[in-house]
Amino acid sequence: MQVNDHRAADRLPAMARGLGYLLASLLTAAVALLALPVLLVPATARAWASWHRRRADRLLRRPRSGPVRAGAWRVLGWLGAYVVTSLVFGLVAVVCAGNAVATAVTVPLWWALPAGTRAGGFAAGVPLTGWGTALTLGTVQFVIFAALTYGLVPPLARLHARVGVALLSPSAADVLAQRVETLTETRAGAMNAHGAELRRIERDLHDGTQARLVAIAMRLGVARESLGEDPELVGRLLREAHENTEEAMTELREVIRTIYPPILADRGLAGALTALGSRSAIGTTLDIGGLGTIPAAVEAVAYFTIAEALTNAAKHSRATGTTVRVARAGDRLSIEVTDDGIGGADETLGTGIAGIRHRVLAIDGTVRVHSPAGGPTTITVSLPCAS
């Protein structure tokens, strides 16, 4: 019995959403007919189609789609189908819901109607001569139209939304073209990022480690020439060379760590993330599922992505805590980092999100950032991890 009650409770909001969707579609279809010359412009038509597909996504509770990129003829074909289906389905909704509402409003006021109009709207020709006739006919009519609204409107709304989504979804050729475009962009970004990384490593080695090694070599050379003549100078030079050697080793380890963190090789991704969370400037909760064997390149991207996300949360979001979830499903590794900060993350402001996106896209992954004003901020990443 409780199951049926829950289904009814779920169906009523669905009916309300479907009714609102169909009535809005009916109105926008009328607007489309009036503004048809404007909507025949491809850019305007695509913007109009994108808005309607987002409406359909909300009704179907699908992830929000991006802008429509279908060809002009495909969008115009959708526009014609949209107008027809909106008018038909919308009028059905108006007839069903309108009669139910009209009956509920007018039956109690039957006595105020002009004498010539006191005939049952459902049982045509039966005069309303008293409360008994009015309530009986009114109840029957209300129940019938309410049942029609309850039963027809939600599936009609979903059918209308699915038709729109299907017509506006890219074809196989469009998907392939977009895929090629994305891969071209990510390849260029990866090449640029790779070049920048090589230049950074070269600069770090040249300006840091190499400079220290040159200084060590010079001190050792002076010490060798002074050997037996100035023991105190030799001792000081050897001491300085030893100190510089330790500093050079430390810098060299830092450079290596930026290429591939040694902790990944020592402890695996789960262990590395545990250590990363313990060093975070703000409280971090880790939820790591079974990961299995993951390619080294994917491990490195996952590690640096989470490290950057935690750094962003500590530096920019005023967060007091973060939650990191890492799980593997088939050949995909999913990462979700959520902080309780103020939100409003903007990757154009140098918050590190652009760097995360470049790393992830370079290995054919996906990134989604949800950061409304007031928070929270959630960064969701999916990485291919098939060996």
From TrEMBL:
Domain Histidine kinase/HSP90-like ATPase: 297-387
Alphabetically ordered keywords of this record: ATP-binding, Kinase, Membrane, Nucleotide-binding, Phosphoprotein, Transferase, Transmembrane, Transmembrane helix, Two-component regulatory system
Keyword Disulfide bond part of the UniProt annotation: no
A molecular function GO annotation: kinase activity
Record protein name field: histidine kinase
Entries under SUPFAM superfamilies matching the protein: ATPase domain of HSP90 chaperone/DNA topoisomerase II/histidine kinase
UniProt cross-references to Gene3D superfamilies, sorted A to Z: 1.20.5.1930, Histidine kinase-like ATPase, C-terminal domain
Catalysed reactions, as listed in the record: ATP + protein L-histidine = ADP + protein N-phospho-L-histidine
Database matches in Pfam families: HATPase_c, HisKA_3
Tagged with keyword Membrane: yes
The organism of origin for this protein: Actinoallomurus spadix
Superkingdom to which the source organism belongs: Bacteria
InterPro entries according to UniProt: HATPase_C_sf, HATPase_dom, Sensor_HK_TwoCompSys, Sig_transdc_His_kin_sub3_dim/P
Transmembrane segments: 20-45, 79-111, 131-153
EC number: 2.7.13.3
